[in-house]
Amino acid sequence: MKKTIILCLFIITIAVFGCKTIAKYSSTKKYAASDSLNAPESTLSIKETTKGEKYAELTSPFLGWSSLRGQLKNGQNGDLLFDINEIRLFGSWPNGWTEGFCEAYGKIVFKKKDNTYFSKVIDNLEIFEIKSGGIRYIDNFYIDNDGAKKVKERIERSQKLIDFLKTKNFDKFYGNPLKDTKYGISFKKATHVYLFPETKGFGGLERKKLLPDIYYKNTTTNTDLTDDKTKRTSKYQFAQGYLWNKDYTSRVFPEDLQALRNTGSLWRDYEEAIQIIFTLYNIDYYFKGPLNNSEFIKLK
């Protein structure tokens, strides 16, 4: 198992560091973090692989650890045309990570003016089928077709969750998935209690009190259950270490998310890949806001 882990980490290292940056353009407007971080809102890098293949990559704190990739072409009057053909989605947690590469389409022009460039979104981003993906969960690695399938399903569930959140009174965007910034509270602080109140302050004593009822009902042949016990048992579903309040689920969540919440699937996505959910939540704002009419300068 250790050899497998080392091999996978070696492959990831090669994928991340096995290319060099040959040019870099940075937005002059800085990302307003709450700490001393002075990162630009957007960075466009031209990279070259060890095989000599070149591609462009757009990153932003608004997209977390994910990035947009494609080809950069020279246009008229020194303009730069960025054709997006791929999005890399990445998120991690203490016990693993999720990574997916999806086909995508989008078009941005960087219009040259003197020694600067001004970005303009020509075609908004569209995300299509997953090309490859993988998930690490503690010592287990899901790669190749199995990994791509699991990442695809995680992205689909996450998008359903985002579509639901967008119908509620949440902000249009968040500055960081986990930390408060000058833009406001973090994505997690804004959504956690609303989506999963059982994981915040739902006491272990209450879980211990209810668990025997659940197992008693599921395993015994004795039908002499009290009405109170039956009511309490039917109200909760135990999954992924938590008792999910089915009444809350049916009252708050749309039908297509209810089973996903009650089985703990949504919670696992949220806990293990909140950065990816954050990225997908912010993309629309990013294309209509910071990426439109931003000033860029060449750094390298």
Describe the protein's architecture and organization.
Helices cover 37% and strands 33% of the residues. With 300 residues, it is of the alpha+beta class. It has a domain at 2-158 and 290-298. A hairpin with a 7-residue loop joins strand 3 and strand 4. Helix 2 crosses helix 9. The longest helix is centred in the middle third of the chain and has 22 residues, at 144-165.
Which characteristics define this entry?
disordered N terminus, alpha+beta, single chain, 300 residues, 33% strand, 9 helices, 8-stranded antiparallel barrel, two-stranded antiparallel ribbon
**In which range does the helix fraction lie?**
25-40%
Q: Main β-sheet, in a few words? A: 8 strands, antiparallel, barrel
The helix/strand class is alpha+beta
Unreliable runs? 1-17, 203-227
Note the total helix count. Answer: 9
| Physical arrangement of strands within the biggest beta sheet | 1-2-3-4-5-6-7-11
Tally of DSSP β-strands:
11
Radius of gyration: 23 Å
What are the secondary-structure elements, in order, as H or E?
HEEEEEEEEHHHHEEHHHHE
pLDDT averaged residue by residue: 86
Proportion of β residues? 25-35%
End-to-end distance: 42 Å
